[in-house]
From TrEMBL:
Metabolic or biological pathway: Amino-acid biosynthesis; L-tyrosine biosynthesis; (4-hydroxyphenyl)pyruvate from prephenate (NAD(+) route): step 1/1
Gene Ontology terms describing biological process: tyrosine biosynthetic process
Prephenate/arogenate dehydrogenase domain span: 7-296
Protein name per its UniProtKB record: prephenate dehydrogenase
Species in which this protein is naturally found: Nitratireductor pacificus pht-3B
Keyword Oxidoreductase: yes
Pfam families: PDH_C (PF20463), PDH_N (PF02153)
InterPro entries in the cross-refs: 6-PGluconate_DH-like_C_sf (IPR008927), NAD(P)-bd_dom_sf (IPR036291), PDH_C (IPR046825), PDH_N (IPR046826), Preph/Arog_dehydrog (IPR050812), Prephen_DH (IPR003099)
NADP among keywords: no
GO molecular function, a single term: prephenate dehydrogenase (NADP+) activity
């Protein structure tokens, strides 16, 4: 086993992402010891039963006291409260990072509390599932997935390299990005798909002409894919919507315009327009598969794609 990258790591929040980090850290031998802290006593007890750490602290400030790396993995709306609680106890020179799905808001919430003696490097692994809580995590979650770091002005390059090495040894590939750009990109590739999924499943649930049992019984795989996303954690997604509202509203406005164009093409029987649009979007799917980013598609899916010929 290679040398640990950090002597002491503190995991604040031990849900899907925190517990996956605990497993990945252990798999790669990245820490001398791991201290777990979370708000709810019940979750902390569950983490202890699962053996996710070496020490367990209900008080986040106690957990970070001697930590060299602190990873905050809580819903983005709780980032400010966590930063304020841990700030006085942080060890000078420690690296503080997070995994939140939005970046500008997390930075605005956390940075004012954190002392200049620590290196704050916000992060976001683009890897997850619809499950939450400490039982949901697994060591392979980050394998082959991107992790975006959004370093701030004045970040020490050595600290950035160390955090990059940490994520790489957790299995991820690392990119750096400006926080505002991150929020715009993630609004279209992650936040909108979840919002659309919540909406379509809600619409189906509200239909009077179709019973709930029919929705369950006849749901084709397209609808089932939406239900998976719509089963994601309500607290987490409420916070994402509230904390990336500007970019999400911008993307929703564009989406609504494009949906209206699609609606018009259907109303006027404009088959050429529909065909052209569906051909363009199919190319995106193929590019994702070619880039090896199609983790959810079993191997046979690659060969089952039809050719884009006009029928
Ligand atoms: N679920 C996913 O697929 C992904 C989530 N993320 C981000 O990771 C973060 C954590 O998400 P998950 O692990 O999925 O959530 P989760 O719901 O599985 O776990 C959240 C954890 O935070 C704790 N917590 C909540 N409020 C707290 C507070 N005020 N103080 C201390 N602890 C608190 C909970 O007890 C729990 O341990 C979120 O910011 C989310 O946006 C990032 C990538 C993927
Ligand atoms: O479950 C899925 O399909 C996801 O899209 C997981 C996910 C959720 C939130 C993120 O910020 C990143 C990844």
């Amino acid at each position: 086993m290679p040398e640990p990258l950090f002597d002491k790591v503190a995991l604040i929040g031990i849900g899907l992402i925190g517990s996956s980090l605990a497993h990945a850290i252990r798999r790669a031998g990245l820490a001398g010891s791991v201290t777990v802290s979370t708000r709810s006593g019940e979750t902390l007890e569950r983490a202890r039963v699962l053996g996710l750490g070496d020490r367990y602290e209900s008080d986040a400030s106690e957990a970070v006291r001697d930590a060299d790396l602190v990873i905050v993995s809580v819903p983005v709306g709780a980032s400010g409260a966590v930063a304020s609680a841990i700030a006085p106890a942080l060890k000078p020179g420690a690296i503080v990072t997070d995994v939140g799905s939005t970046k500008a808001s997390v930075i605005a919430q956390m940075q004012p509390h954190l002392p200049e003696s620590v290196q704050f490097i916000p992060g976001h692994p683009i890897a997850g599932t619809e499950n939450s809580g400490p039982d949901a995590g697994f060591a392979e979650l980050f394998d082959g997935r991107w992790c975006i770091l959004t370093p701030l002005e004045g970040t020490d390059p050595a600290a950035l390299s160390r955090l990059t090495a940490f994520w790489e040894r957790c299995g991820a590939m690392v990119d750096t990005m400006d926080p505002g750009h991150h929020d715009m990109v993630l609004a279209i590739v992650s936040h909108l798909p979840h919002i659309i999924a919540y909406n379509i499943v809600g619409t189906a649930d509200d239909l009077e002409a179709v019973t709930k049992s029919e929705v369950i019984k006849y749901s084709a795989s397209g609808f089932r894919d939406f239900t998976r996303l719509a089963a994601s954690d309500p607290t987490m997604w409420r916070d994402v919507c509230l904390h990336n509202s500007e970019a999400i509203l911008e993307m929703l406005a564009r989406f609504s315009e494009d949906l209206s164009a699609l609606q018009r093409a259907i109303r006027w029987g404009d088959g050429d327009k529909l065909f052209d649009m569906f051909t363009r979007t199919r190319a995106i799917r193929r590019s994702i598969i070619e880039a090896g980013q199609d983790i959810d598609v079993p191997d046979f899916g690659r060969h089952a794609l039809a050719h884009p010929e006009k029928q």
